[in-house]
Amino acid sequence: MLTLLLQEGADTLPSLAAEEEPVEKTLSLFDLLMSGGLPGQIIILVLFILLFVAIYIYFERLFAIKAASQMDSNFMNQIKDHVANGNIEAAKILCAQQNSPVSRLTAKGISRIGSPLEDINTAIENSGKLEVYRLEKNVSVLATIAGAGPMIGFLGTVIGMVLAFHQLATSSGQAEMGNLAEGIYTAMTTTVAGLIVGIVAYIGYNHLVVRTDKVVHQMEATAVDFLDMLNEPA
């Protein structure tokens, strides 16, 4: 009888040990972002809005620049044929059909045919500046977000550390770890979020600058071709 009781007790020990095993807790991304208290939540909300604005501007400008870079490869040859034949109206109609920065630049030059070459060049340059301004619309906002995002994140870091040290000061060095963890969470999560926003905006800004430079180069090449065409002897 005693042997049976000892055996049953030995059998129950593994089950008790299994029941006492700690359960691993998982923390979702949302819970992590919201665990920094009200100051951290406010800063995270601001950074989320900045991230949304940055992504919206990036894709809006990307599609606009992509549309502006599309041009018929035979466009300038057709313009040269129309101008050489004295068919200025047909050249203007062709430019209106293209509806791109290059075609608008060419149309501005065509409208000045008969004026001194210097005046035509000035008109094309002024029109080119307007086209570049249209291409770069709101792109500077991305640069601002790229700089402001990490700074706002670091502001959250400072606020979090201030909250943590305030807990220590008001509790005479006996603050609970849970209260300290809230301030530390605020510091860490806002820093990470700010860096993510800054990196996304910075990469988007530089990519748009490269795409814009390609379109500007295309416009300059077209302007040179057009002026060379006017300089050709009759």
From TrEMBL:
Q: Any one cellular component term from GO for this entry?
A: plasma membrane
Domain called MotA/TolQ/ExbB proton channel: residue spans: 98-220
Q: Which stretches are transmembrane?
A: 38-59, 139-164, 184-205
**Stored InterPro entries:** ExbB/TolQ_transport, MotA_ExbB_proton_chnl
Topology of this chain in the membrane: Multi-pass membrane protein
**Which keywords annotate this record?**
Cell membrane, Membrane, Protein transport, Transmembrane, Transmembrane helix, Transport
Q: What is its main location?
A: membrane
Q: Which family does it belong to?
A: Belongs to the exbB/tolQ family.
**What's this protein's name?**
Outer membrane transport energization protein ExbB
